[in-house]
Amino acid sequence: MTHVLDPDALPDDARASTAPLPPYDDVTRSDASLRAFLHGLPGVDQVGAESRVAMLGTRSIKTTAKAWAIDTAISMVDLTTLEGSDTPGKVRSLAAKAKHPDPGDTSCPSVAAVCVYGDLAGVARDALQGSGVRVAAVATAFPSGRASRAVKIADVKDAVACGADEIDMVIDRGAFLAGRYLDVFEEIVAVKEACGSAHLKVILETGELVTLDNVRRASWLAMLAGGDFIKTSTGKVSPAATLPVCLVMLEAVRDFRAATGRQIGVKPAGGIRTTKDAMKHLVLVNETAGADWLSADWFRLGASSLLNDLLLQRQKQRTGHYSGPDYVTVD
Description:
Elements: H1 12-16, H2 22-27, H3 31-39, H4 46-56, H5 63-76, E1 77-80, H6 88-99, E2 113-117, H7 121-128, E3 134-138, H8 149-162, E4 166-170, H9 173-177, H10 181-195, E5 199-203, H11 212-224, E6 229-231, H12 243-260, E7 265-267, H13 275-288, E8 301-303, H14 306-319
Parallel strand pairs: 1-2, 1-8, 2-3, 3-4, 4-5, 5-6, 6-7
Helix pairs in contact: 4-12, 5-13, 5-14, 6-7, 7-8, 8-10, 11-12, 12-13
């Protein structure tokens, strides 16, 4: 089996191509070859990863750089509501906030997307028409992923038909942890096909993967299968988006692009609530994957309450004082 982690081992035209490389055809042909490849990836030094993110977390961003970082973080938010009690009215209210996070300041950027359950994607689509804010819908029996493949595919097609620009799917963690890697791979491939022109974010649910080695393997598996983004979590399992996990995923997309020429996005989701949390993630992106990932095309922050804190910090940057609690809406 050809080892594809070393970009220098590949011809120049292969590195620049966006098509799957021939070695991957062999890698994904059987459970045995896929297992051999995934378990042949470099192991993760957990202590080293934790030390790295702790060191990067001490970086301080000030003045104009902080103002840029806050606006960048706002533009990366997938503003999310995923509750059983969600209503069309709540989705329309969230869409209004997504388009104009600070109605009193036209210089404030809109967010990247509104993320909802698939049956509400049409409501979000109508409310966001012409705004440039995308509609993301969770699918594939979110959050458990416990359904037949036929049901999952129908779920995806329904969400796309309702107007979803992006699909956030969950992998079958039971199959992954049992070592049935080919089953997981083939399901992602099938979901990607069902997405049509919609982008696919593959949720790994890293809180259930136990080890950082598994996070690296799941990241590569999702990318090999055609995912456009890899996403940490559903937000329904703890721990959700941790910085060491995000570090490993960013290393994976960096190495995958070096090996294949394909750039894949990353979306941490769950537990990112403050501007300080967002800044730590932006520093991690810049220092690990590089500045090419510092846009909403390649990095998203899945959150519901984060936007309010970013807006309060933005107001503080502009006026020198914090606004009262009535400055932001309660979602």
